[in-house]
Amino acid sequence: MKTIALISTAGGAGRTTLAASLATLLARRGRAVVALDFDPQNMLGAYLGLDAFAAEGIGGALADPSRKWHESTWRNEDGVLFVPHGGLTPARSAACEARLCEHPRWLERTIGEIGLPETGVVLIDTPRYPCSHADHAARAADLVLAVCPPEPAACATLVARLPALRESCADVRLVVNRLNPARAMQRDALAMLRGATGNMPLAQRIHLEASMPEAFSRGAWIFDEAPHLQASHDLHGLAQHVDAWLPALTASETA
Hints:
By secondary structure, the chain is α/β, with parallel strands linked by helices. It has helices at residues 15-28, 44-48, 58-63, 90-102, 106-112, 132-140, 152-168, 184-197, 212-217, 222-225, 230-245, 251-254, and strands spanning 2-7, 33-37, 74-75, 81-83, 121-125, 143-148, 172-179, 202-207.
């Protein structure tokens, strides 16, 4: 079993959308997939089919050790096992932060309780880095996908935070999201990012597509509704990149 954290240093980078899309596409490829929402915003479930915000989840288990996070899981129609974060009061949020500080490997140990096969994968959605939740996710991960829109501020913050991120996880790969090649500023920002990050591998560039939120509002995936669009091809490309990085499926798993 491998663990992948989707992390960004800028708000609005699209990591939750990518986490849900990647989980779905990998499940359709025959992978055993767990999508874990470690973001207190508690939004990942909305992308995976929940009609309302999950009241309980892994956040509740973090705040109160007597609670069992696995009692709040559910599986969507694509076979993704979803672990929600759950809603928290300010007091329980403070308890979460305190426990993360006291137990630096809490998330790593918790993920170890998930009984996936060797070829399975846990995908972690995180809040904006740096924060305790995102740092725990990076330290628990075998691979970090650093999601960055090609905007100057987002690229600059990623460059500034990259050394700390690499200390938490040795394998950090870039996902450029919401790319609009017609914008000269984005081309300049990407050139700066490439020069400043040196040898950071590029997992995928994903083009901006205005119809993606519309598809989501209908409870659909853009790669199902409009498979011909560049963004749909890009999302499949990201899934292919991750699928190739993961251990090969056995004959029985691909049957």
